[in-house]
Structure formats: C-alpha cells, structure tokens
C-alpha cells in the first residue's frame, strides 16, 4: 500500500499495515485490536494484495505476527521512549531519535512522537523476538490510529533506523522509510539533524 502524507506534521502520514500483520488470537484484547486495525482499513486481504505488488514477496516471506496488546500512554519520555500502562516503559523498536541533550533536535523528535499519540493515549504494542533490553524497557512496535508510530517517526524524518538482531521483523519497511525521508529532506534531514547520529552522540564521537 502506498504511504501518503497530508501537509503539516508527523501525524499526517497514513500507513497501511506491513506484510503479514494481523491479530491472531481471540482474547478480549486481541478482539479490540482487531477491530482497531480493521477500522483503519487494513483487512488481511488488502494487505496480502498490497504486499505482492509493493515488494514482490507474499505473506510467507515475512516474520510470524506476534501478539498485539492494548495500552495507554501516560508519558512521553523522549523521541523513542514512552510509558504505557500496563506495559511499563516502552522503547520503540527499530528506531533511534536524537538524545534530549542534542538540542534542538531532541525536543523536535519528542514533539514528533507526542503528535503521533492519540489524545486519549490508546495505542497497541507488538513485541519482536527479544522482549526487553538491558534497561528492562519493553521493546515494542507501537500502533496508533492505523499507523505504526515507529515507521511514521522514520518516514517523517525524526528518527533513523536502528536495528539490533534478532528484532528485525520490519527492518526492510523501516529502511525504505528512511531512504525516502532522507531523499526528500524530511524533518530533521532538512536541518542536518542527523549529522551527528544518536549512536555517534552516545559514543562521544561527535557533538
């Protein structure tokens, strides 16, 4: 499915689901998630058709879909971290945003994440292979209002791809989003916001 942008901020990007993403259980939470995803216009038949046209790969070429759980965002910590009840502290998988000390870029990324979260805070989170990092943060893909927040941050130019295998379920999708954002000069790419990447900043190789 094509990704489209409305003028304005990061929340203007609309996204279809990546190949193979669909709820898989009949629990109350999953029923709620299924209704959410279907309401966003991403029924599995549409996904299957779109994947074949977009990537040349069918659903069998993607990683198995993992459980999607509902939670409520209670705090935005920075551009790639949030608190979500009852999951706890969540580190968005596959992405990296400027550190808070990397001003003004850190604040800009934090605002971009804030703009992507619904006012009621209701989102859905999906794990990959590893559940938590060394800081005991839940590693998750976050879905809100029919889009993957991780993808939207990259596509709008407020995050870069950061991959730690084996958590690579959507790496190709995120890489394509970064390539497009960089080519367009979207978000922080337009102001050299990634001249010193977050990883380089943390290592102290640039400031």
What does this structure look like?
By secondary structure, the protein is an alpha+beta fold. The chain contains six helices and ten strands. The chain has a domain of 138 residues: OB fold (Dihydrolipoamide Acetyltransferase, E2P) (Beta Barrel). The strands form three sheets. The protein has a five-stranded mixed beta barrel. A two-stranded antiparallel sheet has the order 1-2. The longest helix has 14 residues. The N terminus is likely disordered.
A few lines on this structure:
By secondary structure, the chain is α+β, with helices and mostly antiparallel strands. Helix content is 30%, strand content 21%.
Task: List key phrases describing it.
207 residues, OB fold (Dihydrolipoamide Acetyltransferase, E2P), two-stranded antiparallel sheet, 30% helix
Q: Between the first and last Cα atoms, what is the distance in angstroms? A: 38 Å
CATH class bucket of one domain:
Mainly Beta
Strand order of the largest sheet: 3-4-5-8-7
Indicate the CATH topology of one domain. Answer: OB fold (Dihydrolipoamide Acetyltransferase, E2P)
Morphology call? globular
> Would you identify the regions where 5 or more consecutive residues have pLDDT less than 50?
1-9, 11-32, 34-64
Report on the biggest sheet.
Answer: 5 strands, mixed, barrel
Tell me what portion of residues adopts beta-strand conformation. Answer: 15-25%
Second rung of CATH, namely the architecture of one domain: Beta Barrel
Oligomer: single chain
| Gyration radius from CA atoms, angstroms | 16 Å
Strand segment count: 10
How are helices and strands ordered from N to C?
EEHHEEEEHEEEHEHH
- Average pLDDT, rounded to a whole number, is 77
- Helix run count: 6
Broad structural category? alpha+beta
Percent of residues in helices comes to 25-40%
């Amino acid at each position: 499915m094509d990704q489209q942008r409305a003028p304005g901020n990061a929340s203007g990007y609309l996204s279809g689901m990546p190949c193979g993403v669909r709820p898989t259980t009949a629990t109350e939470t999953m029923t709620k998630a299924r209704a959410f995803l279907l309401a966003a216009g991403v029924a599995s038949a549409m996904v299957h058709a779109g994947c074949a046209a977009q990537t040349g790969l069918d659903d069998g070429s993607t990683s198995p879909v993992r459980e999607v759980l509902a939670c409520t965002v209670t705090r935005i910590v920075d551009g790639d971290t949030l608190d979500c009840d009852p999951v706890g502290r969540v580190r968005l998988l596959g992405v990296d945003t400027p550190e808070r000390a990397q001003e003004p870029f850190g604040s800009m990324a934090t605002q971009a994440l804030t703009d992507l979260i619904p006012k009621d805070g209701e989102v859905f989170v999906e794990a990959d292979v590893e559940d938590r990092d060394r800081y005991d943060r839940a590693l998750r893909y976050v879905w809100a209002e029919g889009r993957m927040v991780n993808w939207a941050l990259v596509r709008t130019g407020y995050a870069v791809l950061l991959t730690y295998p084996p958590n690579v379920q959507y790496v190709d999708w995120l890489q394509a989003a970064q390539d497009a954002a960089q080519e367009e000069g979207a978000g922080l790419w337009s102001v050299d916001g990634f001249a010193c990447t977050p990883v380089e900043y943390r290592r102290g190789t640039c400031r």
